[in-house]
Amino acid sequence: MEETDREAVATAVQRVAGMLQRPDQLDKVEQYRRREARKKASVEARLKAAIQSQLDGVRTGLSQLHNALNDVKDIQQSLIDVNKDWRQSINTIENLKDVKDAVVQHSQLAAAVENLKNIFSVPEIVREAQDLIEQGELLQAHRKLMDLECSRDNLMYEQYRMDSKNTHDMNLIHTYFGDMQKLSEELAKQLWMVVQRSLVTVRRDPTLLVSVVRIIEREEKIDRRMIDRKKQTGFIPPGRPKKWKEKMFNILERTVSTRIEGTQADTRESDKMWLVRHLEIIRKYVLDDLLVAKTLLDQCFPLHYDIFKKLLSMYHQALSIRMQELASEDLEANEIVSLLTWVLNTYKSTEMMGNSELSPEVDVNCLNLLISQNVVDQLLSKYMSTLTSNIIGWLRKALETDKKDWVKETEPEADQDGYYQTTLPAIVFQMFEQNLQVAAQISEDLKTKVLLLCLQQMNSFLTRYKDEAQLYKEEHLKNRQYPQCYVQYMVAVINNCQTFKESIISLKRKYLKIEMEDTLSSSHTNMDVILDIIAKEGCSSLLDEVFMDLEPHLNELMTKKWLMGSNAVGTICVTVEDYFNDFAKIKKPYKKTMTIEAHRRVVVEYIRAIMLKRISFKNAEERKEGAERMIKEAEQFRFLFKKLAAGSGEDTEGLCGIIEAIAEVIKLTDPSLLYLEVSTLVSKYPDIRDDHIAALLTVRGDASRDMKQTIIETLDQGPSQPNPNYVPIFKEIAVPTLTVPKLLK
Fold first, then answer.
1. How much is the pLDDT for 94?
2. For labelling alongside 323, which of 249, 421, 526, 585 has CA 20 to 30 A away?
3. Beta-bridge partner residues of 420
């Protein structure tokens, strides 16, 4: 207390010091004293009130505790009295056992009396119920069955209460009501028949289906009541619970499975399209059934049955089992496609589960796959393997068929632009197109894989195509009279190369995503290279054909006969032009190449004839005549190839200009200027070799050995500045006889 007093005094001193900090505040001391006195009085009043309240609460609590103690004592005394009375009444209860047995017996007799009418009328009621079942009055028949079952169950229950171990009397009751059990089974058969045909019945006679559902609901209630009584008494009548609701759903499930399995009307042996027909029938049946279930069947069942959702689940499960069975069979490639297309696309499309009339109850996004992803992958793998074998076989067969056309005696067909062609590109790419369209129905990924497979096999096929075209040429060379239309079909082969190129581009543009193009660029380039090789070899073989016919006329060039006025070049031009009438059926890219190559080869053969030194001019007159003839013939070649190359943009001047340049060397009359003329020739055509110059001087016929040697040695020492646009031509021309060392000896 002293410590508290000291703290109070110290606090008061601080408060007073805070109030009297200025002299003018001394005037207010009395005012401060009165204010503090009021505060003190207020605090004391609140303290007194709080203490009084607590004292009242304690007084009330003590009073209640006192009352509770008295109540506990009273209850204790009452329990002692009850215990005493109970011990005294044990003997009295044992003396009432006979009364208890009499009460039980009375209860049984009362139950018997209550059901006496049904007991004596069991056979008659059973017959009436059977008649009602035959008449289709299932509700009334079930009412009678319920009455009989109620009578039997009550009797058996009372017997069970009296003596649960007396099986003889229980069996006696059960036997007496035996016909009732048969009646129940007969009624159940009728119910299950209606349930099996529920989707048909709901259209024709929905009332009958509603009656069946009501009967099942009654039985479910009785089942629940009997189960509850068993929990209380341990007794349950024979045959309970019937679980007719569960049986109904089991029958519906079996019915759905049977309906799905029963849609297969054909086999592979009887109809190649058996699977397509089977799947289409399933689609139609399932869609029709679910629409009926949603619009009609749902109204015949209580809401808690959720009949549409359950049927949807049953159909999905049955379809899944059926699709798994089909997937496990040894399916062909087209059958795998049909199955996967149906499972992955059709099933969730608007043609089936995605039908607008089924929404919103059916959400396709919540439907699982009918077959597992693993099975899908296995089927796709098998399909790709089978498709690979099929494509190889189809390509081989297509090529064999095309080869048979090559030996026909009739010309190949022409397209709308008049270009020769065979059916090979159309057949090949039609096959590719069909397989890609089929793959696209399944998935984008499969479509890409099939496209890659097609292009890969196309690569291998083109190599075989190239080999077959080469064999075709070799066989023709053994007998140039056979095949009769060799030129025309070789033109068609060349055109096919261009068609193949265009078709490959079209196929990629149509079926390949832009981001995938880089992965195929090398493969595409390789195919283009092979096709260009085939076309180039084809063009070369056709030109070989031309030059084999030209050979006799080329052999006349630069001979005495030629100098005397041979028409060899005219014949050459006519022959080339005649061949190019057929070559006009070659498509532009290759036709231009063909014209350029023919022009080049004609000039090469002409220059080669000069270099063969078949003639040596004796005098200036012959040199002038020969040179003028060469210039004239160069002009003929220029005119011919200008005509053949019309519109192609080919340079027809340069090659023929070589002949004219050589003619100028031969025509030169002043030998002292020969070196200058030859050096001009060499500067324009730097691939001319020494043996070419020697042969050219030999043809002139007026150059001595010393002059030849001097010109050649001087030219060897001079600088060479070749034209960058010049395409070497002399390197292909060999001088077959005399070489420079022999000439200079």
1. 64
2. 249
3. 414
